[in-house]
Write a structure and sequence with these properties.
Two copies of one chain form a homodimer. Chain A is built from eight helices and eleven strands. Chain A is of the alpha+beta class. The first copy, chain A, has two domains: about 140 residues, Jelly Rolls; about 70 residues, Arc Repressor Mutant, subunit A. In chain A, α5 packs across α8 and α6 crosses α7. The first copy, chain A, is elongated. The interface between A and B is large, with 39 and 39 residues. Chains A, B: This is Crp/Fnr family transcriptional regulator. Chains A, B: It comes from Anaeromassilibacillus senegalensis. Chains A, B: Keywords: DNA-binding, Transcription, Transcription regulation.
Amino acid sequence: MEPLDLRFLEETFPFWKGLTLREQQKLLSQTRCYVYPKGSRIHSGLERCTGVLAVKRGQLRAYLMSDEGKEITLYRLLDGDVCFLSASCILKNISFDIYVDTEEETELYLIQASAYDALGKSNLAVQTFLQETISARFSDVMWVVEQIVFMKFDRRLAIFLLEQAALEGNDAVTLTHEQIAHHMGSAREVVSRMLKYFQNEGLVEVSRKGIRLLDRKALNALARE
Amino acid sequence: MEPLDLRFLEETFPFWKGLTLREQQKLLSQTRCYVYPKGSRIHSGLERCTGVLAVKRGQLRAYLMSDEGKEITLYRLLDGDVCFLSASCILKNISFDIYVDTEEETELYLIQASAYDALGKSNLAVQTFLQETISARFSDVMWVVEQIVFMKFDRRLAIFLLEQAALEGNDAVTLTHEQIAHHMGSAREVVSRMLKYFQNEGLVEVSRKGIRLLDRKALNALARE
C-alpha cells in the first residue's frame, strides 16, 4: 500500500475541497492506494463492491465478457479517470457486470463503496459527480454501440488502430490479433482477414511484433468515411 | 394541452413531496402535458433540449439513427417511465443524440430542462433521481450491447419477438420486417431470412398481417440458450 496523495484527491474529486474536515478524514480512512502490475484483474463481474476507482497513473480497460469468453472493450481509464461501475453495489439501477484489468502498471486509489455512498446521500456535490461520471461512461458505451451497429468492420478497425496507436504513443500497435478481436467484440479470424487486406492496400505492416501504421492519411480517411 | 395531474407527478418523481410549495409551483409552471398520436417524433437528435419526459400512458421508443438511416432501439418508455436523454442540454457528459417516437397514442409530461436543472443544483433528491434514472437507461443499453456482441441472430430475434409480443399483449407481432430490422439494428433481408427459417421450424407463422408466435416453448428455449 502506498501513502495517499491529497493533491491527487483534490484534483480528481471536484467536491473534495467542499467537504468538511471530518468528512475528508472519514473518506481518507476508507481509501487505499495500490500499485498493480500490467495485466492484473482489478474488478470482475462476480464482485459488485470492489470500490470507487480513481487512476493516479497507468491504464485500465473496462470490458464485458460473455459466458463463452467473448469480450468487448467498453472504455479505457487513464490518469485522473474515475470509475463507479466497480462499485455497482451502491448504484441502484446498474444491473450489468463489467471486468476491469490493468493494461500498464497502474497506481490507483480505491474508495470503499459504502463510504462514498454514505457521503453521496448527504452531499449534493458528491451525488452530482457520481451522475456526471456515470453519464461520461454511458457516452463512452454509446460510441461503442454506434460503431458496432452503424459502421463496417474496415472503418471500425481503422478507428481502433488509430486510437490504440495514440494510446501507445507511436505508430505501432503491439497487440495480437486475438487481443484486437477482444477489444472489438469480434473474432480473431475476422481481424486477421481485415489486417491482411489493410496490408495489401499499404495501410499497415503486419509482423510478429504487432502492427505498424504505414499510411495514417488513408487510415484517417477510412475512419472518417 | 391537458390539465396537470398532481398525483401522477407525486408518484413518478419520488422527490416531489420533499419539495417546498414554492419549488413545486415553479416546476409546475414549467411543465406541460400533451397527447401525441401514434408515430409522432417527440425528440430528435438535432434538438438537445426537448425537456424531461415522463410518460403518463402510452409507449415510446428511444433509438439511434445513423446518417444512412440505419436504426437501433435502445429502450422503450412505458407508463410511469422518465427520460432525461431528451434533455441532454443539462447533462454535462452526455455526448450522444437519440430519437424518441411514440409507438402508441401517448400522454406525456414535459418539464423544461432548465427548470429541472435549477432544482437539481440545489436539491439532493432531485439530483439522485437524475442519477438513478440515467443508470437505468445505461443498463437498458448494456443489455442491447450484450445481445449484439454476444448472441447469434436467431437468439436475438427470439428474444425480440417474445418481448414485442409481451408489449403487444398477445401472440402477434404486428411489425413489418423492416421495422423489426430497425429495432434490432439489422437489415431487412437478414430479418426476413431468419423469420423464414423460424417458420420452416414451426416457431412462427409469417403473414401480411405480421408474425404469429406458434411455439413459445421453443422460442423461450432459443432465447435462453
